[in-house]
């Protein structure tokens, strides 16, 4: 019998974590790592933050858990109202859950129940992008456009209608507009083919995360998607599980584009790694319709418990008082300029993209033709290992069967300073140097 009962993809080969502080983590051998990716783009306010810890302890002294059908909790009300404020009133209702997948799942179910209540039960299909990542539970996985994760479960996921994600890297500067128009036309054609009366919602990550390495879209694209939803009577779901809570320099990434979703999924940075807390936010009109049809038939035991909500409130307060949105913009620009310099130095960097402190680096075998490394070369894994050996954590992703290049995300906590970024860049520089030696 193995002495490791844990069952993860990493096969038990990771260092044992000891403790963490700010942007650093240490393993039990005393090695220090810079958290260049906030874990899984989660620890937005950094590790061991005294204000978050204190708020959690204070809440524990009152009550950790109360069940939502038995009690309201002031911290849940406060967090919900605060989130509505942060959306500047675009989204007026909040439903708490415990993870990003649950938030996406809730968004899908709210959309579905809304149309059932409206007498349009046939509106039950979702349109999502390929590639994309929306979570690991069956509904969210059905939205996900990422072959290696989907394939084993295809028989038991609903499966959405997949449309191409914009890919600005592989379309020359002067044809971006034409590319966006083509992608929008393809999206519209897919809706028409399925029958617009069957579509409940279009779902997307406003800035790409794990599956696309910081894939950007344009204003025209966002406006185009919004108007497709309006034209065909379906809803727009923004999956801001990764991009929300200041990661891109605004509270929510959709706020860069001047359009609003009907439903939004939020997780990761809301609990900032201190406690699992996630939310679905929605327009009031949808919730009113669902409530008048008997209420939202959905919920999880731990959802919106006082400890979770106290954690979320404390995280928001830290982002506010430490002016971390401004820091995400300033440090994001600083990080980006250094990554662009690395891209000039290393032929394996094909593209650098992203917004604020969500920056992705795409690795290519040939910079001129933008040819990806072969999937079996596992370039993402090699670079990530080289960085970890040098004490830098970055977030990797597998190439999509050679269709898209491997990439890594550089997404440090929003508390990061210019000198922290200098350290991250120095270690990344060394890692890329070792990577290029490996591939030469
Ligand atoms: N949606 C997006 C955009 C994500 O990046 C993730 C996780 O990486 C999820 C959903 C799923 O969140 P969780 O892992 O908390 O279930």
TrEMBL record:
Q: Which UniProt keywords apply?
A: Aminotransferase, Pyridoxal phosphate, Transferase
The cofactors required by this protein are: pyridoxal 5'-phosphate
Work out whether the entry's keyword set contains Transferase: yes
The family database entries (InterPro entries) matched by this protein are listed as: Aminotrans_3, Aminotrans_3_PPA_site, PyrdxlP-dep_Trfase, PyrdxlP-dep_Trfase_major, PyrdxlP-dep_Trfase_small
Q: Which domain of life is it from?
A: Bacteria
Q: Which GO terms describe its molecular function?
A: pyridoxal phosphate binding; transaminase activity
UniProt keyword Transferase, yes or no: yes
Alphabetized SUPFAM superfamilies for the sequence: PLP-dependent transferases (SSF53383)
As for family, the record states:
Belongs to the class-III pyridoxal-phosphate-dependent aminotransferase family.
Its recorded name reads Aspartate aminotransferase family protein
Which species is the source of this protein?
A: Natronospirillum operosum
